[in-house]
Every structure is written in C-alpha cells, then in structure tokens.
C-alpha cells in the first residue's frame, strides 16, 4: 500500500513542440521517464495549467507534474498542485537543467537558492522558500561565442544524443531514490558519479 503522504515531483521545461528536444526541457524528459516506468498517466489539468499524474512509485504516493506556463512562471502552477494535494515544499522535488554542471552530471541538492535559474526563482517566489529538493541535470555551458539563451533553448548536439537516454534514466533513478530514501542519503549515491566517465 502506498504511503499516505504524497511527494510532488515537478519537471521544469517549456511547452510545445518547438522546445520538445531542447536542453532546457530535460526536466520534462525525466518526468516522462518516471511516468512511463510506473504507468502513471499524465493528463492536462486546466485548473493547474500543467500535465499531472498520480500513482505509486516503490510504495510511495507520487504526484508527477509538468507545468505548462513556461519556465519562468512554472512556480505558480506547481504551487497550485501542491496546495490541491496538500503537499508541503519539503515534500517537493524539482527536476531541472543546470548549465553550471558538466553535461552528464546529475546532482541532488536538498534546498537552497535559485542560482540564476528562472524556473527555480519562480518556484521559490511561489512557495515562499527554497526548502525543496532539486535534481540538477548538467547541460554544460555554451562554447565560446554561444549565448546562454541560445544554448539552453538549443537542441542537443549529435555527440550528446548518444548519452541522453542514460542521463534521463539516471535522473529517473535519482527521483526514485529521493522518494524511497530522502534527499540526503541519495546525495551520497548520485552526487559523486559522472555519467560520461
């Protein structure tokens, strides 16, 4: 029987086919992988402006969400979902891209600031604090001459595609670990591993 206290796992990204395979959307990709692995159907919920699904993950009740309000406004729909399911920020896990991590790195963080990430900034503003776990998926910094915006909204290079499936799978595993063991214990497992070495 699933735990009565649900955990909300929200992946950050931008809606629509234009952004589907961009670096900024790895959070969405991780949520899709979780939903597929545990047969959780994501449905459009207009009241939340998000795709939402609820189901069991390794004995825990999980609510999966993909906010559809664009990255820099993703906090509002996520907070509405949390309020509806009576989920506190401490039971929220946010999955997002991170240019400060090398491509392929996965890092879990218990809580903190936004570090310049607009999606996290929106989350902190909506919830009134940064007391939620994060799964940071490294997309690396742009090469010399490439702008940050063009980089995060750009498609993966051919050589990056070969590792992407494993990166998303590792992100899914990190989310499951947090649900089962908590962020602190999961950090010891995931924060010291580089997928591309």
**Percentage of residues in DSSP E strands:** 15-25%
Treating each run of at least 4 consecutive H or I residues as one helix, how many helices?
6
- Uncertain regions: pLDDT < 50 for 5+ in a row? none
CATH superfamily: Peptidyl-tRNA hydrolase
Radius of gyration using CA atoms only = 15 Å
Essential attributes:
7 strands, 7-stranded mixed β-sheet, Rossmann fold, alpha/beta, 6 helices
Give structural notes.
The chain has about 200 residues and is α/β, with parallel strands linked by helices. It has a single domain, classed as 3-Layer(aba) Sandwich (Rossmann fold). Helices cover about 35% and strands about 20% of the residues. It is globular. The mean pLDDT is about 90.
Brief sketch in words of this structure:
This protein has 197 residues and is α/β, with parallel strands linked by helices. Helices cover 35% and strands 21% of the residues.
Provide the fold topology:
Blueprint: E1 7-11, H1 26-37, E2 43-45, E3 50-57, E4 60-67, H2 75-84, E5 92-98, E6 106-109, H3 118-127, E7 133-138, H4 148-152, H5 158-181, H6 183-190
Parallel strand pairs: 1-4, 1-5, 5-7
Antiparallel strand pairs: 2-3, 3-4, 6-7
Helix pairs in contact: 1-5, 2-3, 5-6
